[in-house]
Predict the structure.
Amino acid sequence: MSTPRYDVITIFPEYLSPLSLSLIGKAEERGLLATKVSDLRAFTSGVHKSVDDTPYGGGAGMVMSPVPWGEAIDVIAEEAEGEGLSTHTLIILTPAGRRLDQAFAYELAQKEHLIFACGRYEGIDYRVTDHYSTRDHFEVIEVSIGDYVLGGGEVATLVILEAVIRLIPGVLGNAESLKEESHTLRDESTEPLVEYPNFTKPPEWRGLEVPPELLSGNHGLIAKWRVAAAKERTEKLKDQTRE
Ligand code: ADE
């Protein structure tokens, strides 16, 4: 796969400044991926640079106009095609979308070009979804990061990018750490487990000792303890969320 590209379209470009920090920023410096944040207002016409309007049919709030969105997405797709990318995955952030989980993050990590459309207010005119769903070289996925309503898609985009980018080959120093983490570890059934608890030095802290299995040096015993501890933690979590 060619170097993946991640575009973000927003009316608050500064909101995405964490993209230049930490793991994502370092991965970009190393040429493993490219990110670009575009200001939706740069694709408006008129002095007011307006991006929203009242909803047809009435109701509270404002809806984002499809006009600047179409301009922005077309320009970005063309730019990416100039760089040799041929398929675009348009991600529309909305609490009404497909819920992000680890399997979905793996799927997104296979895509060569993600374009994140960060809606605000009551969302983006639905014709943007309809239009790009039928355009050649595009697919559209509406994505939610959880069952709660945020003020806009910016934070959701950061969450998704952080989950996706660390799965790109070469981004994590230690590929082993991907194998055993939460939601990737499984027991003999196919149920995903959360990660087992971890411990480091000192061996005793405030009267609490590290489980002796982990100090045993016996790899079989350690592996068995970890699966059992992950199962116990998964069950505890299920109890907390059970209605
Ligand atoms: N926009 C508003 N709420 C959201 C959510 N939960 N996930 C993704 N985008 C959103």
Summary: The helical segments are 22-29, 66-82, 102-109, 127-133, 154-165, 176-179, 212-215, 219-241. The CA atoms of residues 212 and 222 lie 9 Å apart. Residues 93-95, 144-146, 148-150, 152-153, 156 surround adenine (CB under 6 Å). The mean pLDDT is 94.
